[in-house]
Amino acid sequence: MAKRKRTRVATLERVPVSDPPVRPGLIGPRRRVPRQIGRPPYARTGEPGPPVSSMVRSPSEVEAMRRAGQVAAEVLLLAGRLVVPGVTTDRIDAEVHEEIVRRGAYPSPLNYRGYPKSVCTSVNEVICHGIPDSRALADGDIVNIDVTVYLDGVHGDTSVTFEVGEVDEHSRLLVRETREAMYLGIGAVRNGVPVHAIGRAIETHARAHHLGVVREFIGHGVGTEFHSGLQIPHYFDRRHTTLLETGMSFTIEPMLTLGTAELYLWDDQWTAVTADQRRSAQFEHTLLCADDGAEILTRTPRGEGAAEVYARN
């Protein structure tokens, strides 16, 4: 789940709008979590409070984050198998919820600032934080599924944009290059590098492919808190001079668009949609900064991630 940052964004006009546009469906009741499963502090009240944790993880926290990241990766792989025409996003939420709690973890989005579901499902022009509902996926859609789990006191956060059946060439390019932009951002990570190096790598790639870069939502520190104080913009701004340190944990999760990067929120105050109704894609990994690079925490013990397993040319 991305961290929101309010800034001005650029406008691009390229391809036809989604037709028909995505509209809200019926939202089912909140799903229950077994009592014995550990919960984050906001699970009851919905309010996480201001970030107070260190941006650098302790050795024990790193080990816990590897476990949480592996569970998140495994659940996202399962979610990918559900992505077929005709399945509702609420069904995806149900299956993801059950898989998370079966593994003894808590679905981090559930009741975070009142969010009503256990996963985010963002279809076509929905940029992020789409709420699972009764809408069925259709052939030619794209859908981002954003899975975060809370396990052993820490969070693991990952997402992939999946293609539903056969998609058009513009959507295929968008998905492919957003995935590549994420990996270019990851490639910029190492000890002593300023945060803006990540945004430079991502925005340079996006502009080369005439894609918009969403600025209102950014990557974030993650660990004992769902969102810590560390901010990771996906665009270049030399004022973002925070230096990455070995042991920092955070997400990189670029959101790129086929048209404008400007957006508006639905009345639910969660669902962010492109202002011109052109499509958007997002990919996300949780990372640990090392001396000479980044360790991707949201992969399975075999080193697999949904971004690679479900990749199409």
Give your account of this protein's structure.
- The protein has 313 residues and is α+β, with helices and mostly antiparallel strands.
- The protein has one domain (55-301): Creatinase/methionine aminopeptidase superfamily (Creatine Amidinohydrolase, Alpha-Beta Complex).
- 25% of the residues lie in helices and 21% in strands.
- It is built from six helices and 16 strands.
- The strands form five sheets. Strands 2, 3, 5 and 6 form a four-stranded antiparallel beta sheet that branches. The chain has a three-stranded antiparallel beta sheet with strand order 1-8-9. Strands 4-13-12 form a three-stranded antiparallel beta sheet, with no helix packed on it.
- A hairpin with a 2-residue loop joins strand 15 (285-290) and strand 16 (293-296).
- Helix 2 packs across helix 3 and helix 4 runs antiparallel to helix 5.
- The radius of gyration is 18 Å and the shape is globular.
- 53% of the residues are buried.
Describe the secondary-structure layout.
Layout: E1 3-4, H1 42-45, H2 59-81, H3 89-102, E2 106-107, E3 120-123, E4 126-128, E5 142-151, E6 154-163, H4 169-187, H5 196-208, E7 212-213, E8 217-220, E9 231-232, E10 249-252, E11 255-257, E12 263-265, E13 272-274, E14 280-282, E15 285-290, E16 293-296, H6 306-309
Antiparallel strand pairs: 1-8, 2-5, 3-5, 4-13, 5-6, 7-11, 8-9, 10-15, 11-14, 12-13, 15-16
